């Protein structure tokens, strides 16, 4: 514990350097704006701004991009409460009671409770991250190639199992990402693979053009501007303070949401979204007055907003300690670290101590910045909501193209981004989730290397994954998840056939 506190103090020394403070502020400000603007979301914001980090060092880059992620959880509540439009997917549940409070003249109180709940939950999540990540990383250092291979397979299958779309569709997208990750020079033989004689593809397909295309351009193409308009309720600054009764009603939901969100955040999947739904369901279940939910219940704002912020922090635990992305956002952040030559995983904690502890300390600072940003500047963010999307979207597309080109000054990257943008639009139309594709692309080099090293160790015997205790346990979890998914599919199919037979029997 003493070593952790000393390391954290060292991290604050790095976080308080003027350059790092500035990029933490930029990340929090952009994250809040991304959360406020409907239809963009943190994944699109991080993907669009990823090229900007190429002129920064690794610490500044990850501080700014992470600030966008957890800052968007704060900003999403503003649109939900004032317009009943979720600025970010995790703020869907806040729309229900947040906007109901606003219509009763308590918009300021709802915004204040959301901001304080987000700050409390975020701080709790960072404290847990500080205590859990280093010992978890020391355990992970004992992993060999077979354990890493099994861990990555389990992460992909668990993500697919937790996904809102079907497991088969999610795994198909992940496999497509893994296949795209094979393009370029083979690290073990030096041969060019699937590069179509394009020298620019020697290093493989870049994470930046794929992420910007799928989530930046694809999101804009699939979000018509008429869906992001609505009446804006403007609160006065003097109305921001909740009453004592509202504070009392918010206290326990904030505490429960903080703990629930962090636990769910560690699990692969869209944790910040899932946690807000579960928190809302929990608060309604245990409430003495469940009939108030949907009509302006304070717990319906405090619980979900705390849960999604704590979950976004919890997602950094497996990312930093194990190098395992729990979702597309952390996958892009791992990609940003790799671009700067920093490996994600246990080596990050041991070999890049300044970056790890500087990043953790910057999250404490970022939470304070977000609390200061989200209350006094509500009026400014309301003004941003009034920008016509006919002007805003073309500007975002221009930034996407210029940003991707500036990374390598390669027109091939721009074409990749445009193709991925069209693919992202098509995938959304056919109800495929594009996020696992990026996940597969990010982990492809690590997965391929650990798989091939494992097979070299065993002379091509795949039983190596079942002969070592840790990898065998992880593979057993994979088999169990696949079996549960198959059982669920069979039961649904049987239920569908029974309903169809009953309907046919009831026909005259």
Account of the protein in words:
The chain has 508 residues and is an all-alpha fold. It has one domain (2-144, 188-429). Helices cover 74% and strands 1% of the residues. Helix 5 (92-103) packs antiparallel against helix 12, helix 7 runs antiparallel to helix 20 and helix 8 (167-180) crosses helix 20. The longest helix is centred in the last third of the chain and has 37 residues, at 469-505. The chain is globular, with a radius of gyration of 23 Å. The termini are far apart. The mean pLDDT is 78.
Average of the residue pLDDT scores: 78
Strand order of the largest sheet: 1-2
The string of secondary-structure elements, in order, is: HHHHHHHHEEHHHHHHHHHHHHHH
Low-confidence sequence ranges: none
Distance between the termini: 75 Å
Main sheet specs: 2 strands, antiparallel
Number of helices: 22
Quaternary arrangement of the chains shown? single chain
Q: What is the radius of gyration?
A: 23 Å
Helix percent band: over 70%
Sequence-ordered SSE layout with sheet pairings:
Layout: H1 2-15, H2 18-36, H3 41-49, H4 58-83, H5 92-103, H6 107-140, H7 145-162, H8 167-180, E1 184-185, E2 192-193, H9 207-222, H10 244-266, H11 271-286, H12 299-314, H13 316-322, H14 328-339, H15 346-351, H16 353-374, H17 378-384, H18 389-408, H19 411-429, H20 435-457, H21 464-467, H22 469-505
Antiparallel strand pairs: 1-2
Helix pairs in contact: 1-16, 2-3, 2-4, 2-16, 3-4, 3-9, 3-14, 4-5, 4-6, 4-12, 4-14, 4-16, 5-6, 5-12, 6-10, 6-12, 6-13, 6-16, 7-8, 7-20, 7-22, 8-20, 9-18, 9-19, 9-20, 10-11, 10-12, 11-12, 14-20, 18-19
């Amino acid at each position: 514990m003493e070593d952790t506190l000393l390391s954290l103090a060292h991290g604050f020394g790095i976080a308080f350097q003027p350059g790092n403070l500035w990029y933490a502020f930029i990340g929090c400000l952009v994250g809040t704006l991304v959360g406020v603007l409907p239809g963009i979301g943190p994944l699109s914001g991080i993907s669009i701004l990823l090229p900007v980090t190429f002129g920064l060092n690794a610490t500044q880059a990850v501080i700014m991009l992470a600030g966008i992620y957890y800052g968007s959880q704060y900003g999403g509540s503003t649109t939900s409460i004032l317009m009943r439009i979720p600025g970010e997917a995790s703020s869907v549940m806040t729309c229900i009671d947040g906007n109901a409070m606003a219509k009763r003249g308590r918009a300021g109180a709802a915004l204040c409770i959301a901001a304080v709940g987000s700050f409390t939950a975020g701080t709790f999540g960072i404290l847990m991250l500080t205590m859990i990540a280093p010992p978890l990383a020391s355990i992970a250092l004992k992993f060999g190639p077979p354990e890493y291979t099994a861990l990555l397979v389990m992460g992909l299958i668990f993500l697919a199992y937790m996904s809102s779309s079907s497991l088969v569709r999610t795994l198909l997208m992940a496999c497509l990402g893994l296949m795209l990750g094979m393009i370029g020079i083979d690290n073990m033989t030096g041969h060019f693979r699937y590069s179509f004689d394009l020298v620019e593809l020697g290093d493989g397909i870049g994470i930046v053009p794929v992420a910007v295309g799928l989530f930046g351009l694809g999101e804009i193409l699939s979000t018509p501007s008429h869906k992001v308009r609505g009446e804006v309720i403007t609160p006065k600054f003097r109305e921001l303070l909740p009453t004592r009764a509202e504070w009392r009603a918010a206290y326990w939901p904030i505490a429960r949401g903080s703990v629930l969100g962090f636990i769910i955040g560690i699990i692969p999947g869209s944790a910040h979204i899932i946690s807000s739904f579960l928190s809302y369901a929990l608060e309604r279940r245990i409430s003495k007055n469940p009939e108030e939910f949907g009509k302006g219940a304070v717990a319906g704002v405090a619980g979900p907003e705390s849960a999604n912020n704590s979950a976004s922090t919890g997602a950094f635990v497996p990312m930093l300690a194990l190098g395992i992305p729990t979702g597309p956002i952390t996958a892009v952040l791992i990609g940003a670290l790799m671009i700067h030559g920093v490996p994600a995983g246990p080596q990050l904690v041991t070999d890049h101590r300044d970056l790890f502890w500087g990043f953790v300390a910057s999250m404490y600072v970022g939470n304070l910045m977000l609390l200061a940003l989200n209350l006094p500047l509500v009026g400014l963010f309301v003004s941003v909501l009034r920008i016509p999307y006919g002007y805003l979207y073309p500007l975002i597309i221009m930034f996407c193209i210029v940003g991707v080109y500036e990374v390598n000054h390669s027109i091939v990257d721009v074409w990749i981004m445009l193709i991925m943008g069209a693919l992202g639009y098509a995938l959304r139309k056919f109800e495929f989730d594009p996020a696992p594709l990026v996940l597969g692309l990010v982990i492809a080099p690590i997965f391929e290397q650990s798989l091939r090293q494992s097979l070299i160790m065993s002379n091509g015997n795949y039983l190596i994954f079942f002969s070592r205790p840790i990898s065998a346990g992880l593979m057993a979890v994979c088999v169990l998840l696949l079996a549960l998914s198959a059982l669920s599919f069979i039961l649904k199919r049987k239920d569908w056939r029974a309903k169809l037979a009953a309907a046919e029997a009831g026909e005259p």
